[in-house]
Design brief:
The protein is α+β, with helices and mostly antiparallel strands. The chain folds into two domains: 8-153 and 271-357, no CATH class; 163-266, 2-Layer Sandwich (Threonyl-tRNA Synthetase, Chain A, domain 2). Helix content is 51%, strand content 15%.
Length: 361
């Protein structure tokens, strides 16, 4: 029986890989906007608002979300890189979206929408009180997409609810050995542990098969030396899921190619994507209840204020267990995500107070 307990997450982020690649993240992103459109339609019907404004609000929300989330990631988290690679900024498909940037952009987009579409007949708060409900749902779905991508991970953990992101580990190992991730397999967890810096790491045996005809056993030994040097020393690096141990690997030339059997230290992580997803889905349900059952929409700005207060409070709390996404604040008491959340929390409190002081419309 194993001495440790953790959850192995070995999910391919691609639903279909050929001829057209479809990823869970993209599917959930699209589902978020479809569900948002459906919800908006029901809210418009509840308030007897014509559908003529409906299509345009979706367009403004989509553009605002994508552009704002991308620019937020670029400027808040990786400006050092993108300032030297400006042509990569529009390449959203390579990853890199920030919810704080999306929140700012959605407010701006809805302000423009109120000016150009509703043209003063409805305030920007009237629009935002509806849009943020759909945004809460979208945020939860997107965090599920992050889980499928094995990204936005938490700190290492010894809890039995921690995740070992095995699929991402195989992809990483494959790059070191010029192998296919399909030729990398992990055995069951060993009943031994490795103590490093006061932390107990479980161990697994990994088998790597290199099918390249020009690669010999001596080359594989060199590959492993590089692999060991990089992963053993830098085991605390961001998004590191394993490290090579000091145990000598078994390297054999077989009919299949080169077979390497080695023991790795496993780094289970707190699944912060799940924590955030649960938080955002809970906020979504609360906002739905407030809108339909308590008629919060009759106090303009109340739904918007509750959304900002709860969303950014949840984000602030979860960030304590999340890996730092930028090195500039790696040693600070609060990370970038938390500093960016503080204004959102304060904005939420202000709008709630002002909304409760107003008469119902």
């Amino acid at each position: 029986m194993s001495l440790f307990a953790f959850i192995t997450w070995d999910v391919n982020p691609n639903i279909i890989e050929s001829p057209i690649m479809i990823r869970y993240y993209g599917l959930l992103f699209g589902l978020a906007f479809f569900a948002g459109f459906t919800l908006m339609k029901k809210m418009f019907a509840k308030e007897n608002i014509s559908d003529e404004w409906l299509d345009k609000i979706l367009m403004y929300a989509v553009v605002g979300t994508v552009v704002g989330a991308r620019l937020g990631h670029v400027f808040f988290y990786e400006w050092g890189y993108y300032s030297q690679h400006l042509m990569e900024i529009p390449q959203v498909w390579k990853g890199g979206l920030a919810s704080h940037g999306a929140a700012i952009a959605i407010v701006i987009a809805m302000w423009i929408y109120a000016k150009r579409v509703t043209k003063g007949t409805k305030t920007v708060l009237w629009t935002l009180d509806k849009v943020v409900i759909t945004v809460a749902l979208a945020a939860g779905l997107i965090r599920v997409g992050n889980l499928m991508n094995s990204e936005i991970i938490g700190d290492k953990s010894e809890a039995n609810t921690a995740f070992f992101f095995q699929y991402e580990a195989k992809e990483s190992i494959a790059r070191y050995f010029y192998a296919s991730s399909e030729n990398i397999t992990f055995s069951e967890e060993k009943d031994t542990k490795i103590e490093r810096d006061g932390f107990s790491f479980p161990q697994k045996e990994v088998t790597i098969i290199i099918n390249e005809p020009n690669v010999k056993a001596v080359d594989a030994e060199d590959f492993y030396k590089t692999f060991y040097a990089n992963t053993y020393q830098d085991y605390n690096s961001n998004e590191q899921h394993y490290f090579a141990t000091k145990q000598k690997p078994n390297i054999q030339q077989t009919v299949d190619g080169i077979r390497i059997t080695a023991t790795l230290g496993i780094i289970p992580r707190i699944p912060t994507q799940i924590l955030e997803a649960i938080s955002y889905f809970s906020i979504f349900l609360l906002l739905i209840w407030g809108y339909w059952k308590q008629e919060w929409y009759k106090r303009e700005g109340l739904v918007f204020g509750v959304f900002f207060l709860l969303m950014f409070s949840a984000r602030f709390i979860v960030e304590f267990w999340k890996e730092h996404q930028t090195d500039s604040l790696a040693n600070a008491s609060l990370n970038m995500g938390q500093w960016l959340s503080v204004p959102g929390i304060l904005i939420g409190v202000v709008f709630i107070v002002f909304a409760l002081r107003k008469k119902k419309v």
